[in-house]
What we know:
Largest sheet: 8 strands, mixed
Low-confidence stretches: none
Number of strands: 8
Order of helices and strands: EHEHEHEHEHEHEHHEHHHHHH
Number of helices: 14
Mean pLDDT: 95
Radius of gyration: 23 Å
Amino acid sequence: MQLGLIGLGKMGGYMAERLRLGGHQVVGYDFNAEAVEKLTASGNVGVSSLEDMAKKLEGRKAIWIMVPQGKPVDDTIAKLVPLLKAGDILIDGGNSYYKDSMRRYKEVTAEGLQFVDVGTSGGIWGLKEGYSMMVGGDKDAVEYLRPILETLAPAADKGWGHVGPGGSGHFVKMVHNGIEYGIMQAYAEGFTVLEKKDEFKLNLPQVAQIWRYGSVIRSWLLDLTADALAGNPTLDGLQAYVVDSGEGRWTVFEAFDLNVSAPVITESVIRRIRSREENNFTDRMLAIMRKEFGGHAVKTE
């Protein structure tokens, strides 16, 4: 089966290779000419324009978009719509906000095309492990894409599913990422408690390896953490700066809208934001208040 793929960064490139190994042909486009050349050298087909992509794809066209969320997705769709025919499928496999995906579903459907939103997890490990995919859209469009989805997934019947109508795939992925934030925060805090216990001189890589087997907190994330600690047990050279894709925030906002208490996810998002503040004003305010009401000492530069 053919698939158009827009966005040949690390994840897009790995997806293209997994599809090639699964017997599918990818027709790929990227602003980066080197990425297009690399795709062609691997045995797939690289093109220099969206118009060329539309010509290369035969029959009912399916085009998977892997670009940053927001305006880049809208701009890409606007350029593609005139190049496609009724029944052709646009797939957004990036980290889009689910309400944007609901809107795009309506807009694309009004043009006689179909729109599928795929919340995609797996990152750079997807080539080897397969991708977890949460799929939203019309049933017939998803069924048409089944060979592609089964190839990208860890197994044909595992790690992916049609979860609901347009927008639902990105909604489920949003909550997935919110949960991920909370789990990561818990691991980070736990390992910090271990590291601070000077009395025991604990070997953190050893502890991580112990927890990987038989423990109720074992996970793939713990496996990756153990590998990272083995390579750099004291985290030398790293800054305490954690970025976020926005999906954790969206999960918190949605929890508020639905009157759902989600303190762990909320706090994990706050901690990420806090990590970017050097000598942050909030903590300095707390210090000066303690000094004023209790005469507590403050540290100065």
